[in-house]
Amino acid sequence: MNRRRLVVVGADGAGMSAAHQALRVSRSRGVDLEVIVFEKTGHTSYSACGIPYWMAGDVESADALVARTAGEHRSMGVDLRMHHEVMALDLASGKVEVRDLEESRTCTVGFDDLMLATGAEPVLPDWARGVPGALPVKTLDDGYAWRTLLENKPTSALVVGGGFIGVETAETFARLGVATTLVTRGEEPMSSSFDPHMAALVRKGLEQAGVEVVTGVEVNALGSLGPSPAGAGAANGTRDDATQPGVRVACAGGAEYEAEVVALGIGVRPRVRLAMEAGLPIGRHGGLVPDEQQRVQDGVWAAGDCCEVYNRTLRSHWFVPLGTHANKAGRVAGTVIGGGTASFPGIVGTAITRAGRAEVARTGVLRKWLPQMGLNEDDVAVVTVDSTTASGYMPEADPITVCVVGEKGIGRLLSCQIVGGRGAGKRIDTAATAMWAGLRVDEVAMLDLAYAPPFSPVWDPVQIACRKLADRL
């Protein structure tokens, strides 16, 4: 029996899901498959989404964020090589050039199948590079650096960027008692994921948590003020070791903000340098665009944050870097590489987070995306309702606002956005499932959902919104 070799580039969610699934399926089919995984860093299979909560102290250590250690991967049959950077791909000859970063030597490794799981990289403008106290929140190494900075008890922090990571990081700082300012160029925080009136509720949640929110402003400079004089701050109990840098942030329009630490949450982009240099095609959002089996070309596969994913509502590919998609797509790739049958059916754009005490969730499209679908405002109806997460007479009842958009004529649910208190956010799964299954708005309104006063009003808020939307449609 001829042995085949799969080389995987990247050892996080997509890469390791593919590696293990390929081994499982190939073994079940009697195929002899060798799997070699190259990882540039010293970390594997960890939850980047948990880093802000580790920073806040909700998670005791980085180990708790690691789903499977390098040793566990190896014990399951994967040849995992940490601190190995793939420098180049030769697709014609089926070889990769690999640099052993610890031994400072380079070798060439052949493959029959190649899996690209290179992930995404944080957007770091030139003005943000090399300034002490200014860091992204992306990797475990970033998390370790932030834990060290926060141990020095900074009294002020600035967050640049109003997306999911920016909002989560601002909330983290505020919970730690750090005076926090969030600056975003959008008209509201999370304006790239929510319609304006719902994004305004996100801002309200941050402000109620103690975060100062500055909107419509773009940062264009970042400078260090240098360490404080020895003993500065000792009188008010902040610090006395002078190790914490100060940072001045200059924003468009001449405004300046000073903070001891700056979190860079400007966004991420697909890490595709290797793929581009090898001549692989890149999509309009900057990522690889695999088919339903995660195949980029014969013998080459890709999954995770280096890829765009198919949005079932938009009917086009979109860049949505989330661990849920990475693990599912990696499993699909591994199944097919191992000789099985699988496909990744796409997404509907579901996401959730927290802004202070406000739970924030969304699925579907924004109204500003309608032209991409061949629609305009006259083709849709919009309903926003205010309700409570439990029956109004119950002590558990918190406010909840639900906004739904539907397409006239066919009654299709196009989007749902939710901002509310405890128990609000995960209601988005009702709308996401309905959109996935192609249910009409009136059908969502009649779903048999669970009811008891501590958990929901008689009419669930999502169903109230869909009932009213059905009337308009």
Describe this structure as you would to a colleague.
This protein has 473 residues and is of the alpha/beta class. It has three domains: 4-46 and 59-120 and 268-337, 3-Layer(bba) Sandwich (FAD/NAD(P)-binding domain), CATH 3.50.50.60; 124-264, FAD/NAD(P)-binding domain; 358-472, 2-Layer Sandwich (Enolase-like, domain 1), CATH 3.30.390.30. 24% of the residues lie in helices and 29% in strands. The protein is built from eleven helices and 26 strands. It has helices spanning 13-28, 51-56, 70-75, 140-151, 164-175, 196-208, 273-277, 323-337, 428-437, 441-445, 461-472; strands at residues 4-9, 33-39, 79-82, 84-90, 95-100, 105-110, 113-116, 120-122, 134-136, 156-160, 179-183, 211-214, 219-227, 245-251, 256-259, 261-264, 268-270, 295-297, 300-302, 309-311, 316-318, 351-355, 358-364, 380-388, 399-407, 412-420. The strands form seven sheets. Strands 3-2-1-7-19-18 form a six-stranded mixed β-sheet. The N and C termini lie far apart (62 Å).
In a nutshell, what does this entry contain?
With 473 residues, this protein is of the alpha/beta class. 24% of the residues lie in helices and 29% in strands.
Descriptive tags:
globular; alpha/beta; 24% helix; 3 domains; FAD/NAD(P)-binding domain; six-stranded mixed sheet; Enolase-like, domain 1; five-stranded parallel sheet; 473 residues
